[in-house]
Amino acid sequence: MYALKFAPIYKAKVWGGRRLELLGRDLPYGPIGESWELVDVAETTASGGGGGAAHSVVSNGPLRGRTLRDLLCVHQESLLGPARAWRDGGFPLLVKLLDANEHLSVQVHPSPAYAAQHLNARLKSEAWYIIAAKPGAVLYVGMKPGVTAADLRSAIADNTVPELMLVVPAIPGECHYLPSGTCHALGAGILVAEVQTPSDTTFRVYDWGRTDRELHVEQALACINFSDELPADEPVEPVNQLGDVTPLVNSEYFCWERIVLAAGSYEHPEIVAPAVWMILDGAGAISCGGVNTEFSLGDTVLIPATQIDALACAADVTVLSAALPLA
Which of 153, 204, 210, 213 is catalytic? Predict the structure, then answer.
């Protein structure tokens, strides 16, 4: 097993744009809202991905053309090592890039209680890392203290939902964790990297005046966390010991860090693996399993549990590293 790259799966969205081209991408025509960088789900929804299965396909090395699900079936130990697969046996993370040229819908993903009671609803906790944002861009992250389900139902009828939500400035370099059950929306003018549990279940409650997409009011009201207390931030300790490490998220589903590596060569680098790397700056190569995998700005690389022989950085490299949950 070696460091794997995958063909991105692009999703046209009414709210999408073209800024993924800034990451060196050759985009298909139209407003591209999402690039699914790494995915292994048996089913996507019409409200999220458009229906059907979605499995990333390897784009480099001897395993080119194989799907991630195929590799998990044949090489799970080499790929995941001590990390655990998702509940359905698939890869435990879904990794995306999102370009919000316009506001995304105000939405919520299934709470643990709702997911336990509805077989077709899959829990989805996610984190956003803001890569770029236009001046004045904001995030909507939860309901204001004191807001009730009745208040939200009235606001849906009156088209005043955003007035009930907590609004946070979108600042490049900051990260926001959104546990399942958090009502949220990505505001216009923001480019983010996203790591989430492998689910595509989305319930919309408000769509900024758009009338051609379905709302899911009753399902959303059953999932939204209306608690006056937002989840407290827990201390996050660095996982990796290589480079300048900034911890971002430490949840039961994944650990996310920003790592800055100085230009140079590293023999047997101390990298926690398996992990998913998203390259924000710089270029280099990872050598393991007898294969040298080059990377540069905009690439996403799955580093397997196999021993890493060497890491070479042609210039200073900034990477978002998502470590997988251990069994």
Answer: 204
